[in-house]
Amino acid sequence: MRLCVCVKQVPASNETRLDPVTHTIIREGAEAVLNPFDAFAVEEAVRLKARYGGSVTALSMGIPAAEAMLRRVIAVGADEAVLLTDRAFAGSDTLATARTLACAVRRAGPFDLILCGRMATDGDTAQVGPMLAENLNIPHVCDIAAIESVENGRLTARRLTDDGYARVRVPLPALVTVLKEINIPRLPSIGGVFRGEAAAVRVWNRQSLSIDPAETGLSGSATRVVKTMRPDLTVKAEVIEGTPAQQAERLVARLRARHLIGEEERL
Predict the structure, then answer these.
(1) Exposed (0-12), middle (13-18) or buried (19+): which is 208, by Cβ within 10 Å?
(2) What residues have CB less than 8 Å from 135, skipping those under 6 apart?
(3) Which range scores top for mean pLDDT: 51-65, 113-127, 216-230?
(4) Span 2-215: which CATH code?
(5) What is the pLDDT of residue 22?
(6) How confident is the model at residue 266 (pLDDT cuts 50, 70, 90)?
(7) Among residues 34, 63, 73, 105, which one has the least CA distance to residue 199?
(8) If you count DSSP H runs as helices and E runs as strands, how many of each does the chain have, helices first?
């Protein structure tokens, strides 16, 4: 079985910087890590390879420095990796990203199953996986909590719903996005680290994918970030002094002053 796992390098949560002009994340020079959700997709792909045989191809779109992240993915069990990097890809929204990834999947494939993390921590949209499947015209299932079997050209899995879990079957080829509860990602072995360092990561640019410049990057994006801001994380606390009765009276007065309770309400 040929498996493809899509991964993304994201800034560490405490390293996120925003471009004041383009309103996009500045990735150069920031500490970067494998998107935490994607680690579960990688682990599940490696487990499926162990159960059913085959190979795992890791695919990522990002800056040249993302090659180091792909080597770590190889270290935990992927067989090969492809990095899509080009200035033309910069600023891609989820739609342009999905189009670009679809071109790469067609070139590197065919694949029986594509796995993605549920979402990326630098975007939180959960859109790229389903959009990629739509671009490839294959079925997809989101929020997979467990893959039970892959038999007779069909995948059986358990997915999270609003009411609990549902067992689903989908014909292959297909795409799934996985939840964190699906597994516990392994750490690389010493041998795996050496294998990752020695691996040849293929690098493809826009010309390699034969993608129209108008279909990728900012030019190919249907959405624009018009404003970005950092949330105010300042915590303000006021300690109300006095006896319990005095504290209650003062608390009620403050709540009424802010129109949070009415005159007739008592604590």
Answers:
(1) middle
(2) 98, 99, 101, 102
(3) 51-65
(4) 3.40.50.620
(5) 65
(6) low
(7) 73
(8) 7, 11
Model pLDDT for residues 30-39, shown as the tens digit of each residue? 678 999 999 9
Give CA–CA dist 120/60, Å, rounded: 12
pLDDT of residue 141 exceeding 80: yes
What's the Cα-to-Cα distance from 248 to each of 243, 262, 265, rounded to whole Å?
A: 9, 15, 13
Give Rg (Cα) of the chain.
Answer: 23
Distance from the first to the final alpha carbon of the chain = 64
Look up residue 123 and give its DSSP letter: T
> Model-level pTM?
0.80
* Strands lying side by side in the sheet with 174-178: 164-171, 154-161, 140-151, 174-178, 113-117, 2-7, 55-61, 80-84, 202-204
Residues of the chain with CATH 3.40.50.620: 2-215
Distances (CA, A) of 87 to 63, 212, 213, 242, 257: 8, 13, 11, 63, 55
Which residue in 111, 106, 128, 131 sits closest to 119, CA to CA?
Answer: 128
| Cβ atoms 81, 71 nearer than 8 A | yes
Chain centroid offset of residue 229 CA: 21
- The model's pLDDT over 145-156, given as tens digits with 9 standing for 90+, comes to 999 999 999 999
Please report which residue ranges of the chain form alpha helices under DSSP H.
36-52, 67-75, 94-108, 128-136, 190-198, 206-209, 244-257
pLDDT over 70, % of the chain: 89
The answer to whether the beta carbons of residues 40 and 180 sit under 8 Å apart is yes
